[in-house]
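Interim report, section 4.2 (structural modelling).
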Amino acid sequence: MRNTITIIALLIAGIGVLWAGTDGLQVITAEGARRLVIQEKPKPLPVVLLRDQRGEAFLLQDFQGSHLLVEFIYTRCVTLCSSLGETFEKVSQQIPEEARGSKVNLVSISFDPRDDMADLQAYGERYDAIPNHWRVARVENSQELKQLLDTFGITVIPDRWGNFEHNAAVHFVNRQGYLDKIVDHDPPSITMEALWKRL
Amino acid sequence: MLMRRITLFSEGIYFQAGFGLGLILLLSLPVSRTWLESSLIMHMLVQIPLLALAGWMLGTGLFKNRLLSWNERGIPGLLIALFALLFWMIPRWLDAALSEPLWEVIKFITVPMLIGVPLGISWLRMSGFARAVVWTNGISMLVVLGWLYVAAPVRVCNNYLVNQQEEFGYVAMLLALFIAICWIGLLFFGSWKQPHNHCD
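Predicted structure of the assembly:
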């Protein structure tokens, strides 16, 4: 009898721990957890000085009042980042002319210290980025870059061949300047649907 | 003579417990942590099993003949170990152990205490059937896990590269194959006498 009770109690406790450990079977990866946390508790962004492909300095806070979509890339990347770039290219084409820059802005931020202005410009041109509503930018200060990546929950690991492994997604910042949604960048229709809901 | 035997016995269990504790300390050195956590394979197939082994030594050394009435046929102990193992196989918490010091500490405590210790004190009390179930399920779980890691292009750990996931998958499947071959060898050539069960 005692054995049965012990076993039942342990089963309940064990299932409870696994349930809690996966937020009710919703997330098993750190990436999933990051998205859920943001959705439940939107995060304000740190004040970080960025410089875009035209050399113009700006802050993410400058876009308050418009919806902001953020991606993290590096320009030498030929895998994930090109699909990130293609997604932004498609989204950017779909945004109605009058909403571009006023209601919706896109920012691709490079985390690679090697990327200079020419690299950003080339990346922008590859995907027809129009700087008025799609900026390709770098963070000048490495301390600030780290702070920004931490806030967004981006883990970047350099590999042996001078490339980076990084988690890729589209980040939504609402009109009040809070990061409040993270979605898969592929297929682009996911990003568009999430965006149309906001407009 | 009797006193001498008792002293030897207690030396034996303290030696075992000391070995377990020493192994935990050795694994928690920054050098060994950096080395064993540098890849997914080392982390999951070397560090965590060694931590569990340390707990096993600690457990059989210190608690072998205690908690008997709570651990009938070793099943409650096995359940604790199983749930703790499942928890540490959730990629999210493996990631957390790498990025947050608190979770690393929790890992170093719970893997020996909740996987190694209960398994160590339960294993010899479990029936041969229960042990066979653990082995066979373990083998098939390793195969499925390995195959998943090879087949799924989704990156499950933010702290590890995708190609490491794939390597882990192959190593896990090889390990399963190795254990299965050992089992078949045991079936054909091993002796099937039950180990003497002191606890019942």
